């Protein structure tokens, strides 16, 4: 077996704080096809080195960028994701045909009986799992079926679709990672102890620091999709990290507004929004010493909460130890209260489908200095048995119509729990 790494491996850009240095062991390895993989252990037996992780992936996988065999038995080049720019909006649209073959274990379209995100189970008929060990705390690894990936030797130079200047295309040379929160494949993120979520927060910071330094990356986006109704294909407590070779449309719009606000008023729009919510109080739903959570005054979704740090911070890797602990506490409380939001009459709430999206300052864009780290958490469930579907106005024109008001959303959160949560 490959020699176990030290408690605090040297990474080029990630610098662990005091807590992580002493309580989280990061162990890098490589999967059978060459993808990068990291264990993040908070179990004292692994932190101390008393126990070590399995580093060898036993699967007979070919190198990830090798030529592949198509349906007719012909050898074809690796199907690298491409992206094309929409001339009407300027948006880059990645296109990844290889994702059609990814395993699906959740919902009516399930194609695999096992779980590739679970720890390895000796004797289990499904042995194509992504984790080499039979147990883990938190793991991060490159997605086997990425929407974006940098292919060695492939030029990033733009070309034209059909040789027409209207349609620019380039390789989608980004990076897609999977972050598994816990080995219990039937568990819920809301039920994880705060200490485990603290390790998840460290993983977000670790990968933000490292992925931001990758050639061509413009934005690092950690996010979590939870629930079959959201479209999750793998039933397991996990999130993802997309590192885009462009600035995504949502962030671009926010940057335009934050920059214009700064030029006109000299302040930071996100900070001024947070302070205004604190002043008016009604829509503030949670707070601790480092973070404020509120329902935005123009909330789109029937359940929507934004979370900001009290201190001016641009990206997750800039958070200090106290802020990372307070974030783990805040996130745990938010998930629990989200599950309690809709009352089925039995007092048990429900497993809320949600998206948790981290909006960070872009990597290189000069407008980053007038941005601010924030989490945007939302669900399209609007009642116990009702879902908000995006109809013609929302899908066709991006003109949102809300089925509730931000004040009613905040009122429900106030019924569930106190605004001030314990530090």
From TrEMBL:
<dbReference type="InterPro" id="IPR005850">
    <property type="entry name" value="GalP_Utransf_C"/>
</dbReference>
<feature type="region of interest" description="Disordered">
    <location>
        <begin position="51"/>
        <end position="75"/>
    </location>
</feature>
<dbReference type="GO" id="GO:0033499">
    <property type="term" value="P:galactose catabolic process via UDP-galactose, Leloir pathway"/>
</dbReference>
<dbReference type="GO" id="GO:0008270">
    <property type="term" value="F:zinc ion binding"/>
</dbReference>
<keyword id="KW-0862">Zinc</keyword>
<keyword id="KW-0119">Carbohydrate metabolism</keyword>
<dbReference type="Pfam" id="PF02744">
    <property type="entry name" value="GalP_UDP_tr_C"/>
</dbReference>
<comment type="similarity">
    <text>Belongs to the galactose-1-phosphate uridylyltransferase type 1 family.</text>
</comment>
<protein>
    <recommendedName>
        <fullName>Galactose-1-phosphate uridylyltransferase</fullName>
        <ecNumber>2.7.7.12</ecNumber>
    </recommendedName>
</protein>
<feature type="region of interest" description="Disordered">
    <location>
        <begin position="107"/>
        <end position="131"/>
    </location>
</feature>
<keyword id="KW-0548">Nucleotidyltransferase</keyword>
<dbReference type="GO" id="GO:0005737">
    <property type="term" value="C:cytoplasm"/>
</dbReference>
<dbReference type="Pfam" id="PF01087">
    <property type="entry name" value="GalP_UDP_transf"/>
</dbReference>
<feature type="domain" description="Galactose-1-phosphate uridyl transferase N-terminal">
    <location>
        <begin position="80"/>
        <end position="246"/>
    </location>
</feature>
<keyword id="KW-0299">Galactose metabolism</keyword>
<keyword id="KW-0479">Metal-binding</keyword>
<feature type="domain" description="Galactose-1-phosphate uridyl transferase C-terminal">
    <location>
        <begin position="255"/>
        <end position="368"/>
    </location>
</feature>
<dbReference type="InterPro" id="IPR001937">
    <property type="entry name" value="GalP_UDPtransf1"/>
</dbReference>
<feature type="active site" description="Tele-UMP-histidine intermediate">
    <location>
        <position position="238"/>
    </location>
</feature>
<dbReference type="InterPro" id="IPR036265">
    <property type="entry name" value="HIT-like_sf"/>
</dbReference>
<dbReference type="GO" id="GO:0008108">
    <property type="term" value="F:UDP-glucose:hexose-1-phosphate uridylyltransferase activity"/>
</dbReference>
<keyword id="KW-0808">Transferase</keyword>
<dbReference type="InterPro" id="IPR005849">
    <property type="entry name" value="GalP_Utransf_N"/>
</dbReference>
